[in-house]
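dumping the sequnces here before i forget
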Amino acid sequence: MSGHESTYKPASGFTKWLDSRLPIIRLAHDSFVDFPTPKNLNYWYTFGGILAICLAIQIITGVVLAMHYTASVSEAFGSVERIMRDVPFGWLVRNIHMVGASMFFLAVYVHMFRGLYYGSYKAPREVLWILGCVIFLLMMATAFLGYMLPWGQMSLHGANVIINLFGAIPLVGEGIQSWLMGGPSVGNQTLNRFFSLHYLLPFMIAGVVILHIWALHVPGNNNPTGVEVQDVKKDTIPFHPYYTVKDGFAIVVFLMIFAVFVFYAPNVLGHADNFIEANPLVTPAQIVPEWYLLPFYAILRAITFDLGPIDAKLLGVLFMFGSIAVLFVLPWLDTAKTKSMRYRPVAKQFFFGFVISCLLLGWCGASNPDDPLIAMGEDKLIVSYIDTAGLEGTRTFDEYEAAAEFRDEQQAAGATASMAVKKAPAFTFKILSQILTAYYFAYFLLILPILGLREKPKGEPDSIHKSVLGDHAPAAVPAE
Amino acid sequence: MSDSNTTAHEAVDEERRDFIHIAAGAAAVAGAGLVAYPLVDQMNAAGDTKAASSLEVDISKIPLGGEIRVLIGGKPFFLRHRTVAEISAAASVVMSKLPDPETDEDRLEPLPDGTLNPAILVTSGACTHLGCVPVGPAQGAVGDYGGWYCPCHGSHYDTSGRIRKGPAPKNLPVPEYEYVTPTVVKISL
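..and the predicted 3d for all of it:
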C-alpha cells in the first residue's frame, strides 16, 4: 500500500550503489516481497497472477510464431500449416498460443466475476477497475486480430462481419469501414495491418497491466470481506512468501489444465471451418466467433427490432458495445455501501443469475438464432401458386409427398407454384437471447442501483482479522 | 527581492509571454496534425487497390436459372440468368410488401439499344446486414422468395435481390454497370 514505509535494506556495495541511482530492487521488494496483503485472500484472488503468466506465454509464443508466419493472403494459410508440420516444435508453440488465447479469456472472466462478486470496483478502486476494463477491450481486439491471421474461412468471414459493424454508424460508417479494410474488401492489405496491430497490442496490454498493478498498490488489495485494512499488523501478511506461494500453486494447477488442452485437445475450442483456406465467394454455413466472444455476439444478434430512428443493425451494435461500456461506469451504478456480496443476501442471488445469463448468452451466440429451443407444433409445408387466370393462392400441407404432388399438378396446369417451409411457432434462441440481454443490462442499470439503496446487509465483520478468527476467538498466545 | 529593486529589463511582459504561449501551442497542434494526417491516411485504399476496380463479364455462358459469381477488388457480385417464372415473380410483387421498395425495372440497366434485359440481374453479393455472401441456386438454397438466402443471420432475398425477410435492412445493391455489348457487362466498384 502507498504510505507503508520501505523496508528494503541494500546489503552489498553494488546494491547500495544501484539503489541510489535506480531504486529498482527497492521497487520490486516493496511491491512483491514486503507488500502488506490482506491475510484472508482466497483462491479466486490468484487469477491476477495467472493472467500475468498468460500474457507472458502469449507474448513469448507469439514472437516465435512471427518468425515463421507470412502475412499475405496467398501464403498465410500455408505458412501456418508449415509451422504445424515442418518447423521444429512449431506445432507445440502454435498450440500453446492458440489454447493460450482461450485460457487467457477463461482466467480474465473468472478475475472479472471475482471483482463483481467482492465489489472490487467500488471506491477507492474505480481507476483500478477501469484500467482492467481497458485491458479487457485490448484483449478482445488482440484476439480478434489474431484470429484473422491463419486466413481460414472463419478468419476472413468473421473479420468481415466485425468490420461491417462499423458500417452501421450513420454518415461516417462506410468511410471508417473502408479505412479499416484499406480497400473495398478484406484483402491482403487488411491482413498486413491486422498482423502489425496484433503484434503491437500485447505490448500495450503489458503497459496497461503495469498501470493496473500500480493502481492496485495504492489502495491495496480488496479481500473477500470487502472490509478495508484497518490495522496493518493484524489484518495483513507480507506478499512474499505467503502469496507468492499461494499464487504459485494456483498457477501450477492452471498450467496443468492448460497442458491438458495443448496436448490432448488443442482444437476442441476452435472451429472446423478455420481449417479451410479463406474463400471470399463462399460464406461458411454459420459464422461464429471464438467461444470467449460468443455472449457479446449473442447480444448483437438479439436486437432484431428498430427503435425510433435507429434501425436494428445499428441498435445491435450499440447494445453490443454498450454491454462493455456499462462495465466502465459500474463503480457509479452500484449504490451499495457494502462491498462484498457475501453480506448481501439478495444481491448475491442476482449476481449468480448474472453469471448464468452470461453463460447462456454464450450458448445463444453459438446457436442459430432461428432454431427452436422449445418447439410448439410441427413445421408445415406451404405451396403458393399463381394460376393461369392470375389468381394467387396458398395451401398448407403436413407431408412432403402431398405438397409436391399438388405443386406438380399446378405446374402441369400452367400455373407457377413453389413450395416453402413454414416453421412452427417456437421459443427460439433469439427470444432467449433477448431475455438474457434484457437481464444483462437490467443487472447493471436497474438491479445494482436500486438494490444498493434498499437491501439490508447481513453479518459484515468489523475487520479482516475478526472475520478470520471469529468474534470470540481467544487472544493469540505469543509464541515462546 | 522587492519590486523596487527590479530593473526594467527584468520585468515580465505578460502580453508578450501570452503571445509566445499561444504561438508555440498553435505550432505544436499544427505540427501534430501534419504528422497525424499521413499516418491516418496511409490506411486508406492504395493506388493499385483502387485501380483494380472494374471487370468485364461475359454473360452469355450463364445457364438459365443459374448464376455466376465474380470478385472485383475482393468484393463478390452475382450475375443471374433468371427464368421467366423468376422474372414474373420479381415484377409482380406489391411495392407495399417490400421493406426497401424498388421495382424490378429500377434494378436493371439498359442494353446498348436502350431496352431492358430482365433475364440478367446483376447485384452485389454482400448481404446488407453484415456482409456475408448469401447462397443461391448453385448452393441449393434460395430462401423463401426464390432469390438468395443469407445463412449467417437468415435474410431472405427475392429474385430481384430485394430484401423480403430477416435482419438485413436494404436490398442487395445494384452495382454501377453497363452493357458493353449485348453479351458483356462491365461492372465497376
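The interface with chain A takes residues 40, 43-46, 49-50, 53, 69, 71-76, 85, 88-89, 92, 125, 129-135, 144, 146, 150-154, 167, 169, 189 of chain B (CB under 8 Å).
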